[in-house]
Amino acid sequence: MRNNVRYAHACQFAAGGMMPGELDDRTILVTGASKGIGAAIARACGAAGARVIAHYGRDRAGAEAATAEIAPERRLLLEADLGDLRAVQAMWNEAAAWQGRVDVLVNNAAVMLWDGGFDESEPQWDAVWEETLAVNVLAPARLMRGAVNHFLEMGGGAIVTISSWAAQRGVTNPATIAYGASKAAVRSATQSVARGYARQNIQAYIVAPGVVRTRLSEQFAATQPGGEAAVAAGLASGEWVEPDELARLVVFLASGVAPQLSGATLDVNGASYIR
């Protein structure tokens, strides 16, 4: 029966949808849930029946919009500055206390700063690296620490890290070198969790998107010669990744139907980068 359920889940995912109640028994913490990929993940997890803890930095309205269709008793909005580890820890503590458990941590929130190139001043270079590593590495690492210790007490759980193809191939714009390095660091940390705790029923997955249709990507494309059309022309499929596709993938991973996929990096870039 268990294999049949897994097969049904896999078929539903392949068809581009979600099974109602797929995540009914799970409480999921999503960081950066107020916009872009995180908002899509929060919506999808809620639609699949999960209790959703939606983290936001300053945009509470965005987090409210992303969780608007989730019943009030099945959602919790938490504010935290991911550049402040005390705030990060307080958020984790509140998240874990809400239902007495967190089943899945989705480390999604990140910053990409465009002014960290080699031609910048030394103070500017250092500032970009410090902020990037604080938000993109130290914060998710602290949440992973809390999640792993929590999962050990609960008998299992899962972590899904939203990384980037930049973690494997580097960045094309040297001004964003700190971003690429940070995504490689958080990918490695997630792999270490997968390897170190596989026997304790803790799974950890990495999702590595290419060019995703988010406000940040659109703003970046607008600064490039030829704009969005030129960016799309350089992709194998000619299309950007839609946040909803990533959200469906996260729901699939959070459902627990593919435990042997733990440790994998799932490339989502329309065949533009194949390892």
From TrEMBL:
A Pfam family per the record: adh_short_C2
Family designation: Belongs to the short-chain dehydrogenases/reductases (SDR) family.
Name the record gives this protein: SDR family oxidoreductase
Species for this entry: Sphingomonas baiyangensis
Keywords: Oxidoreductase
InterPro entries: NAD(P)-bd_dom_sf, SDR_fam
Gene Ontology molecular-function annotations: oxidoreductase activity
